[in-house]
């Protein structure tokens, strides 16, 4: 028997033992120890072949029929791999109900050696359902079972799990923990082999994202350059598009606007080819923001109007909410008050449906500004007051401060000195909260 045959026989023996409900201790005797049985099942090369034959005899396995059995076993394995790949595709395409049903259809007998994969798939399912704790538990358990799972080694499952754990932490705003998972994923991505080498670039990309969110812009740029040097190796079109989007956003942060515009446009061309509306929305929003920061309101308006035309193709209305707020702000700057009001009313309608509190506060606040510029001060006060109440839920004290300031200005326009003073006093109270939270020397 060569090394490959020993490994395959070992896997098959383990499967047969499990199917018979036997423990290692049940098969050990004075001729063969539990340690030797374990070595055989794990395919350890130096195991005495006589011991392998002895163990097969104890399990009533016919050596003459073994080649035929192993061929069948390999066919079963390939069939199982295909099922796993199909479920991964369902999860990627957000067909969550179908993915869960397919997981439930897998029998326990046929999947006992694939527990790491099953736990991982369940973890990724829970991640997309926003059930964070369940997702973390399944993914962590999966990593403990990697060594016994043949599919896990084939697809770089440990790295995939760390990537998913990082996403889970990021969604909960635990950025430091997310970054730790990414670093761990990059450590293991090359160690375990596997056909899916593209997970490496997803990990590298998210490392840049998390560093940028943590305000570590220089580090983010350095890692973005490293990622860009390997871009010819990236085969996943979605990752390729996102790398361009990330590069454009980072260059915007350091005010290299024209370079950022070039990368955004390259990303847009890729996203159009892939009909990737989610990334198109992000890239056109980035491009519009770049034009706006350059003072080119006309081109910015073109970008954000296009983003809003994607509304039937976009599931995440938060992205549309942001675009509507920026477009309305452009109208506000140009004194196109009726168009601005229409944009903010639409944004509020979306925000109320999706419960996107942060952008909703912004939309209501901006609608208040429209009303104030129109001289409709009482309506403006009503909008500012609502925005401040929503901001209180998030303890967003700078937003509360801005709302109170605008309310005070409205009361001054109405000649109501008492209420104006009341809101200036409230601003002082909010400023104390800001100082306590951010620290006295935050501005220095």
UniProtKB/TrEMBL annotation:
GO molecular function: DNA binding
Gene3D superfamilies: lambda repressor-like DNA-binding domains (1.10.260.40), Tetratricopeptide repeat domain (1.25.40.10)
Xref: CDD domains: HTH_XRE
SMART domains per the UniProt record, alphabetical: HTH_XRE, TPR
Keyword entries, A-Z: Cytoplasm, Repeat, TPR repeat
TM stretches of this protein: none
Keyword Chloroplast in annotation: no
Stated family: Belongs to the Rap family.
Protein name: Tetratricopeptide repeat-containing protein
Protein's organism: Thermoflavimicrobium dichotomicum
């Amino acid at each position: 028997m060569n090394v490959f045959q020993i490994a395959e026989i070992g896997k098959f023996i383990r499967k047969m033992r499990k199917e018979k409900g036997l423990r290692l201790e049940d098969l050990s005797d004075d001729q063969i120890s539990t340690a030797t049985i374990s070595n055989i099942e794990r395919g350890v090369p130096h195991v005495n072949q006589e011991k392998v034959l002895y163990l097969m005899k104890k399990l009533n396995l016919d050596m003459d029929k073994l080649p035929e059995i192993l061929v069948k076993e390999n066919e079963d394995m390939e069939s199982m791999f295909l099922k796993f790949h199909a479920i991964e595709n369902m999860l990627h395409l957000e067909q969550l109900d179908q993915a869960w049903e397919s997981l439930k259809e897998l029998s326990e007998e046929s999947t006992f050696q694939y527990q790491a994969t099953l736990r991982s798939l369940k973890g990724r399912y829970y991640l997309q359902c926003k059930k964070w704790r369940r997702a973390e538990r399944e993914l962590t358990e999966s990593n403990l079972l990697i060594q016994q799972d043949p599919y896990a080694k084939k697809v770089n499952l440990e790295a995939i799990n760390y990537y998913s754990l990082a996403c889970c932490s990021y969604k909960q705003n635990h950025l430091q923990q997310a970054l730790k998972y990414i670093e761990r994923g990059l450590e293991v991505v090359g160690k375990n082999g596997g056909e899916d080498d593209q997970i490496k670039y997803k990990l590298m990309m998210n490392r840049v994202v998390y560093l940028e969110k943590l305000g570590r812009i220089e580090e983010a740029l350095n890692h973005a350059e490293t990622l860009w040097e390997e871009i010819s190796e990236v085969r996943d079109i979605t990752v390729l598009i996102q790398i361009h989007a990330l590069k454009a956003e980072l260059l915007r942060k350091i005010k290299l606007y024209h370079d950022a515009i070039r990368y955004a446009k390259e990303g847009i061309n890729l996203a159009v080819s892939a009909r990737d509306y989610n990334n198109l929305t992000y890239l056109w929003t980035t491009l519009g923001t770049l034009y706006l920061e350059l003072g080119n309101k006309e081109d910015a308006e073109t970008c954000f109007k296009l983003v809003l035309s994607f509304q039937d193709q976009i599931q995440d209305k938060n992205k549309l909410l942001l675009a509507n707020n920026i477009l309305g702000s452009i109208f506000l700057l140009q004194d196109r008050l009726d168009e601005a009001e229409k944009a903010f009313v639409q944004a509020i309608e979306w925000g109320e449906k999706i419960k996107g509190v942060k952008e909703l506060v912004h939309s209501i606040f901006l609608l208040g500004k429209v009303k104030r510029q129109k001289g409709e001060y009482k309506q403006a006060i009503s909008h500012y007051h609502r925005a401040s109440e929503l901001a209180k839920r998030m303890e967003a004290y700078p937003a509360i401060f801005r709302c109170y300031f605008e309310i005070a200005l409205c009361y001054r326009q109405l000649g109501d000195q008492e209420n104006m003073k009341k809101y200036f006093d409230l601003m002082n109270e909010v400023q104390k909260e800001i100082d306590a939270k951010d620290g006295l020397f935050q501005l220095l």
